[in-house]
Amino acid sequence: MDIELGIQNVARTVTFSTEQSADEVNTAIADAVENGKTINLTDAKGRRIVVPAGSLGYAIIGSETKHAVGFGNL
Predict the structure, then answer these.
(1) pLDDT confidence of 32, banded at 50, 70, 90?
(2) 22 has which bridge partners?
(3) Are 37 and 11 in contact (CB under 8 A)?
(4) What percentage of the chain exceeds 90 in pLDDT?
(5) Which long-range CB contacts under 8 A does 6-14 form with residues at least 24 apart?
(6) Strands 38-42 and 56-61
(7) Residue 9 backbone zone (phi > 0: left; psi -120 to 50: alpha; other: beta)
(8) What confidence tier does 62 reach under pLDDT thresholds 50, 70, 90?
(9) Nearest 5°: CA angle at 10, between 6 and 15?
(10) What's the predicted TM-score (pTM) here?
(11) Over the chain, what HEC string results?
């Protein structure tokens, strides 16, 4: 699943893929924002993404649906 985080006062977004479910990501972000903690997520390569919740501008949590691309006879 793809995640995009917009950070306040930073022009570039933080974009990464994760194996975590949409519910896990949503819970981690909501808990951090509610309690003033850091957002701690792990990308698909095992790297940790840590963002202070107070700096988060927005979060886009992508679809978990994986699409297969095929080229058949048209």
Answers:
(1) very high
(2) none
(3) no
(4) 81
(5) 6/56, 6/57, 6/58, 6/59, 7/51, 7/55, 7/56, 7/57, 8/55, 8/56, 8/57, 9/55, 14/49, 14/51
(6) unpaired
(7) left
(8) confident
(9) 40
(10) 0.78
(11) CEEEEEECCCCCCEEEECCCCHHHHHHHHHHHHHHCCEEEEECCCCCEEEEEHHHEEEEEECCCCCCCCCCCCC
For the cut 80, the answer to whether the pLDDT of residue 72 exceeds it is: no
Residue-level length of the chain: 74
**Residue 61 identity:** I
Separation of alpha carbons 29 and 40, rounded Å: 8
Tens digit of each residue's pLDDT (9 = 90 or more) over 33-56? 999 999 999 999 999 999 999 999
C-alpha to C-alpha distance for 21 and 71, rounded to whole angstroms: 29
Amino acid at 38: T
